[in-house]
Design a protein that fits this description.
Layout (H helix, E strand, L loop, with lengths): L9 E4 L2 H13 L6 H21 L14 E6 L4 E6 L6 H9 L6 H7 L4 H11 L6 H4 E9 L6 E6 L4 E7 L5 E8 L9 H12 L6 E4 L4 H4 L5 H10 L3 E3 L16 H12 L7 E7 L5 E7 L16 E5 L2 E7 L11 E6 L8 H6 L1 H24 L1 H15 L2 H4 L4 H7 L3 E2 L11 H6 L7 E6 L3 H5 L5 H5 L5 E3 L4 H6 L3 E2 L2 E5 L13 H13 L1 H10 L4 E6 L8 E4 L7 H9 L9 E5 L4 H8 L3 H18 L7 H13 L2
Parallel strand pairs: 2-8, 12-14, 16-17, 16-19, 20-22
Antiparallel strand pairs: 1-6, 2-3, 3-7, 4-5, 4-7, 5-6, 8-9, 10-11, 11-14, 12-13, 15-17, 18-19, 21-22
Helix pairs in contact: 1-5, 2-7, 12-13, 12-15, 24-25
Adenosine-5'-diphosphate binds next to helix 2.
Length: 643
Amino acid sequence: MSKKTETETETLGFQTEVKQLLNLMIHSLYSNPEIFLRELISNASDAADKLRFSSLTNKALLEDDPDLNIHIILDKNNNQLTIEDNGIGMTREEVIDNLGTIAKSGTSEFLKKMTGDQKKDTHLIGQFGVGFYSSFIVANKVVVETRKAGEKSGVYWSSAGEGEFDIKAIDKKSRGTKIILFLKSDQKSFTEDWKVRSIVKKYSDHISLPVKMMKVNDVSDESSDGDDDEKSVKKEQVIEWETVNTATALWTRSRKEIDSKEYIEFYKHISNDFNEPLKWSHNQVEGKLDYTSLLYIPSKVSFDLYNRDTPRGLKLYVQRVYIMDNAEEFLPLYLRFVKGVLDSQTLPLNVSRELLQKDSQTENIKASLVKRVLNMLSKLSKNEPDEYQKFWDTFGDVLKEGPAEDYSNKEAVAELLRFTSTQSQNDKQNISLANYISRMQSEQKSIYYLCASNYEAAKSSPHLEVFRKKNIEVLLLTSRIDEWLMTNLTEFKDKKFQDISHSELDLGDLSSEKDKKEVESLNKEKESFLKRIETALKNEIASVRVTDRLIDSPVCLVASEHELGEQMRQMMKSMGQDMPETKSIMEINLSHLIVKKLESIDNQAKFDKLALTLFEQAQLSSGKQLSNPSDYVKRVNELLMER
Ligand code: ADP
């Protein structure tokens, strides 16, 4: 590689992903070009936050320019818009890394999801956050001049957004970053003062950093005495800057003063999500834990919600000084969809991730924030059930991790769970445990549930037959993690949960003593028949017994006491766990004609064939896969052909 002198311009290529992103963005966001300003102001505001944070330990970084702000300069003649901050700035390496690559995790995953369908892609891009590159929606050339606080030399970067950028060292007096947009000819309106002001108000009012623009001043015209030269001198002299935004950190203002639009824009600023949030909760807590929190529930799931490495957590401030993004210590994993800001009055300013983990305040603030989020969700479910349903459909599966992770709030999380049941008309999960309990029969003591791989399979499971007959509601659990959820949820409001596909189905008072006795005596009476089936299926099942849980089906499989259900087995397998096959118990319905037929068969080979077929049918209806499906088909066909 050739050695470069300081001033020599070097041309470098963008990372492939950047090229792809630029292309997609320009094409999918052109209908809303003004967002570039929000993104650039947002970056400048972050840069100011970072400088303020670094200057806590190194005052010299403030140089002799301690008032942090943003200036926007419009140049109609040259069709340019310049935005300049005196924040932290960037070194040459940082410029190359930040403005030439996309460092965010999951980028390629994100790009893979792009469909080419503009509507869908705009939504995805929204989730990703477009940042600096959005400049190219309005500009055909972008120049960045930046100097990192404390460094001597500045950096010049320029690109037409077409695959390459130029970079060289420059002298730059003022610290921070200046971005000059050479606007496209059809974007001239971004040099209109009123327009830019209104965009700043609309998107960046909540930013604590003052955004300054030139004061439009016509005093000089009025005082003009007709001398053109003097007039222009006067105009120059009266240039004044004025702050266009409110410039107070939003969360520090009183709730009453803030309207929804401001809350929504602030959400977009901190979350990298273009969609509006579903709900938020803004609280100022005084006393021992002195903090302000502004917590948001997003309306859309982010594409990397299930990626464990995705940064999560709140933006942390201490006494209004920005400390870090993604402070994950304040929320449990099952609330990882929550976005927001936490501003503590009492944590030390030099707090680091390590210190956070040790500080006892962290746990207390966390406990209080969890209560707040659960409360917000509970209120939403009561006051705006349709909105809550949207939340549930989007984040329900994440919330289901709650009972396992957070024992102390198990009951509160359980109240928020929603299910389908045998009472549902479709697979919509909208039945709460409280709904279920309110419909329980007077003798019913347990909450009954059934796990299956999907709603259709659950609905037609033979295990439900006796419940239908007795008109008892059963929850149908069809999400991948439901069975695991139920291992952590044993009771709700003193009602035990009972898996109806488990061996010890106890209908309690719903089943009369007489019925129970009858089943017992039938089991004795039919002992030799049951033994015959057991022998025929000795490699497949643990045992056989008579049941009264079946009405229309001849047989079903129930899990023996410590056996894992099918969902759980599949989940463990997908996590790479070795899952040895366990044997279930087969229950038979003596009043079914096929079972009666089986009992009457003397020929051993025929008996074995029918017994095996019944067993395989039971496997199928409990959602299992047959080890040899074509053998099964052959056997059924033979049975169908028999006279
Ligand atoms: P994001 O802001 O989401 O990280 P961007 O593409 O907007 O993505 O910016 C990439 C990075 O470039 C930022 O994270 C930041 O480190 C740096 N950067 C952008 N604008 C500025 C600025 N005005 N001052 C300092 N650094 C900046």
